[in-house]
Amino acid sequence: MSEVDERAIIESYKFHHIDISKCKQCKEFSCEEACFRGIYEVINKDTIPKCIVVEDREDRCVKCHICTTACKLRAITID
Ligand code: SF4
Ligand code: SF4
Description:
Blueprint: E1 10-12, E2 16-19, H1 20-23, H2 30-34, E3 40-43, E4 50-53, H3 66-70, E5 76-78
Antiparallel strand pairs: 1-2, 2-5, 3-4
The structure holds iron/sulfur cluster (2 copies).
One iron/sulfur cluster binds near residues 39, 61, 63, 66 and 78.
């Protein structure tokens, strides 16, 4: 992976990788709405937001990459 910020904190699932250091600054939470397969949930929206992949939903992903585009902070990568 290129361009990995040294401050990045990546949480990896099977093939989704989320830089949760970016989620902390997020105000839009567009990942949740963008994924029509319901894969993401943003927790702690009022404090320190963090995007998670909902348990057992990761395999629903069709790799359409709508979410990677929707996340303006570019926190999401998919293998
Ligand atoms: S994945 Fe992107 S849109 Fe979702 S909470 Fe994190 S920074 Fe915000
Ligand atoms: S690639 Fe498509 S299906 Fe997969 S998590 Fe992103 S928006 Fe959802």
